[in-house]
Amino acid sequence: MGKKYIILLVFSLLIGQSFAVGVKEIDPLNDRIALAFSEVTSFMGFDKTPDERLYVEMRQGEKLYYGFHFLIDDFPKSSGVYTRIKDKAGNIVMSSKEVSMGGEGHIANRSQAESGPNSLAATGYKPILFEAPYDGSFYIEINEGSPTESRYPSGLFTADWYDFTVTSATNEVKNGRVWSTAWQLRGLDGISDAFNAKQYIYTDDGITSVVDYNGMNPIHFVVISNAHGTGQPSDPQQTKKSLADIPYSYALDYFSPQYKLFFDEPDPEFFPDADLDEVFGQLLEPITISGCPGDFCFNINVDRESSVTIDIEQNGVPGFQENTEDVQLVGYLSPGNNCLPWDGLDGAGKAAITVDLEIQIDFLSGVTHLPMYDVEECPNGITVEFVRPAAIAGPAEVYWDDELVEGNQSLVNGCKSGCHAFPSPGTQWGNEKMINSWWYINKPATTQKLTIDFPVFAAGPDKVTCVGQEAGLESSPGYSAYYWSPSFTLSDAAVNNPQASPEMKTAYIVKATDADGCNFYDTVVVDVLPLPMPEFEQVMDGCLGEQMVLNLKQPHHSVNFSVTGALGTSSAETLGLTLNQVGDVSILLEETSGDGCVGTNSYVLKSHSLPNPMILGEGMCKEEEKVYTVDQPEVLSSYVWSVTGATSFSSQNEQVSLLSNTADIELVVQEKDMNGCVNWDTSLVTIEPTPYPVVQNHGDSAFCEGEYTYLSYTGTNLFGTQHWYRNGQIFSVGDSALVKASGEYVLLANNNGCRNADTSMVSVHEVDLTPYPDVILDYAKTDYVTIGANLEINVDDYELVWGEYLPAELEHEVSPEEDTRYQVSVTTDIGCQDTASVFVKVFHPIIVPNGITPNGDDLNETWEIKNIDLYSNRVRIYNRWGTVVWQGYNYENSWHGLDMDGKVLPTATYYYVIELFDVDREFSGAVVIMR
């Protein structure tokens, strides 16, 4: 028994050292490197993309043991996390299981995670077990909060202890089975955490290399690898460069996972080694060059997919020298013919007429890029070795290009140990940067020489012209097509020698196309001399009849004048104008410079019409104060008045106020309009006598409404017209007026605008008797009602009389048995009368039965409501659900238990609403139908 125990113990120790992937591989020095399930990507989440998955390769019957210790915001998560497994097609092959404290899949400490599942090591954890139902790729999913529905974690979701162990059906550990294209990891203690793992990268062409991260400090990071780098594969020169200033919100735009990544050596059963005789491409025919300057193609025919580097020797020194005339092109080729583009320029940006090219082509394989995002520091660099195939095993040369992040460049000579260390330790230099490194294996170079003859094309010479004049352009003849730009100033942009008429100095670019379709370019510059600009020192509008002199500015040359719309006389430096008509005056100036350029200038000024002020107003009355004004004054004009013959006057712009005496008055106004033009008007004001009217009343000054009195006109200076006004409104014209209403009556006499007035007051007694509104007497509530409570009378002295022999008081309490109208009248002290009435409606209560028995026995067959016939009404019957089953207007006691369609209603309790419109009352209750 002891011997077996020792064997089992040794066997367990051996198994514990052979577990596939877990915390001891990813975090070998206990630097607290956790699996991260949130932040940049949703690693291993439910229903996520293939690049967010953790895959396991298995044969039918093989077993997967796995477990976790989960954290939310760095606190242990003891329950509420679910895991399930799908096959590569997305079918669920293991339904959701909850990972809870003490249950399956829960790892209590790091020691358990390092030991592995307890089925293989007694000190291990209790795992979740999955047995593969068939050969294939399977992936593990994790979700916080739901066993079925994909949810974003409630906080920072990580696992600080974890293990994934694959075994055969007999529990033999199978390494190299667990991989992802984008591992998401996090240092739980921040910048102090170091990533000391070794990671294996398996390329699409079967090359395996291992990266030692040497304690870099990433905090939170996603590890990916691909064949091209940080950008789009279509631009191999740019995509290999490291990038700066990539915030987290855009980080996913730059991730391009491709290769499978492991934390142990890939199992060759699933990930076989490349055949080195097949991974490198071969030229099927010599390289040729085609195309046109600026758009060349190196035509490369290969037998298989290949990565190539072409060094174009231009500086005379063997090998590619960076920052010289040498050019290096990188491309990824497909089987067959490929075009590797070249712009025809050397490394210094120049193109020669004749170019001898010495081309060196390298076929690459296992091209591996490692773009690392947001790694704060990498003080020790990385070390890369090729693992398989065995023929290439050994250190790899690592390259990088940090020119876009202001770092070191390593493009020519590769690095083999401690490569690509980040500068400035302690500054988190790599924050929000994507730092790329790459390595590859290559086949010995092939060298080939080519010669390119560029055709000669030229345009010129440059030209000088004046604004508005043409210049002839020239270019080499004999090409099949031409195009000049900018074309809008050319006579014909499609010929080799167009005429140009630019307005400013212009560089014309000509494109010539030869018979092979190649384009050539050159430039002709046309310098445009400015035209002279003859100008006056000052030009202003004038008024009709005005004379003015316009002076030329200095310096100037020979200037000619042309005038339209005025009389003009000129000298060498001046132009005299006489404005003899209203309207525009056009002046054209033409000057010739010493360069022979002719310039013109033109002016338009206005010859304004004179204002035409007209004084409004007729004669004045003696000793009258009167205001005279200008007819239709202009808002922007100013007016000045002068007066002869007035006792006094005052003026304010367009009006003047005069106080007359017995003599006539002469008014003169001067208007100056907004254009500064001036004109006058004169008016003679005559003085008229004033009438003095008196109103005579031929009746009583107070009378009842409906009667009238008679007013007439007496006084002195009885001439002119008379107008009668009541309360400010004219109501009669002439010597007399008939008056029927109270008010102030004014007689206005008018003699050629000289007015005077007299006033008389007339009172008409109006009696307005307003009684209390009609009322309802409800015998069910009271036996009397008060009438006249709000009686209003608009006279002080009066006599009040009620009909029905009621005493002459304002209020009475009455209790009629039938509807009764009470009439009241009032008489004033001068005999004016008015009457009004109050109607008392006597309400007779209705009596509503609480049931009917429409069973044909002639007893209680209909629903008879007493007194309802006294009022206009509406009756509605409802069932117990509130639905109207019958209704009628002006009910005649005829309802006998039918609905509105004439159908018999069943025995039940119903509900009624009775509205009496005359008295504005409503009654409701229940009525029972018994059959």
Describe the structure.
By secondary structure, the chain is mainly beta. Helices cover 4% and strands 45% of the residues. The chain is built from 6 helices and 71 strands. Strands 1, 2, 4, 5, 8, 10, 12 and 15 form an 8-stranded antiparallel β-sheet that branches. Strands 7-6-9-3-11 form a 5-stranded antiparallel β-sheet, with no helix packed on it. Strand 54 (721-726) and strand 55 (729-733) form a beta hairpin. The longest helix is centred in the N-terminal third of the chain and has 15 residues, at 2-16. The chain is flat. It starts with a helix and ends with a strand. Residues 1-18 have low confidence and may be disordered.
Coarse shape: flat
* Span of the ends, CA to CA: 99 Å
- Kindly report the average pLDDT value: 86
Question: How would a textbook summarize the main sheet?
Answer: 8 strands, antiparallel
Secondary-structure-based class equals mainly beta
Low-confidence stretches: 1-18
Question: What's the arrangement of secondary structure elements?
Answer:
Elements: H1 2-16, E1 21-22, H2 23-26, E2 33-36, E3 54-58, E4 63-72, E5 75-76, E6 81-87, E7 92-99, H3 110-115, E8 128-131, E9 136-144, E10 157-167, E11 178-179, E12 183-187, E13 198-202, E14 208-212, E15 220-223, H4 236-239, H5 248-251, E16 260-262, H6 276-279, E17 288-292, E18 295-302, E19 306-313, E20 327-333, E21 336-342, E22 354-373, E23 383-388, E24 394-395, E25 398-401, E26 409-415, E27 434-442, E28 446-453, E29 463-466, E30 471-472, E31 481-485, E32 499-500, E33 506-513, E34 519-529, E35 542-543, E36 547-551, E37 558-564, E38 567-570, E39 574-578, E40 583-592, E41 598-608, E42 615-616, E43 620-621, E44 625-630, E45 638-644, E46 648-652, E47 655-659, E48 665-672, E49 678-685, E50 687-688, E51 692-697, E52 702-704, E53 709-716, E54 721-726, E55 729-733, E56 736-739, E57 743-751, E58 754-765, E59 769-770, E60 775-778, E61 785-787, E62 792-793, E63 798-802, E64 812-814, E65 820-828, E66 833-843, E67 851-852, E68 873-878, E69 884-889, E70 908-916, E71 921-929
Parallel strand pairs: 29-34, 35-41, 43-50, 52-58, 60-66, 67-71
Antiparallel strand pairs: 1-10, 2-10, 2-12, 3-9, 3-11, 4-5, 4-8, 4-10, 6-7, 6-9, 12-15, 13-14, 13-16, 14-23, 17-18, 18-21, 19-20, 19-22, 22-27, 22-28, 23-24, 25-26, 30-32, 31-33, 33-34, 36-39, 37-40, 38-39, 40-41, 42-44, 44-47, 45-48, 46-47, 48-49, 51-53, 53-56, 54-55, 54-57, 57-58, 59-62, ...
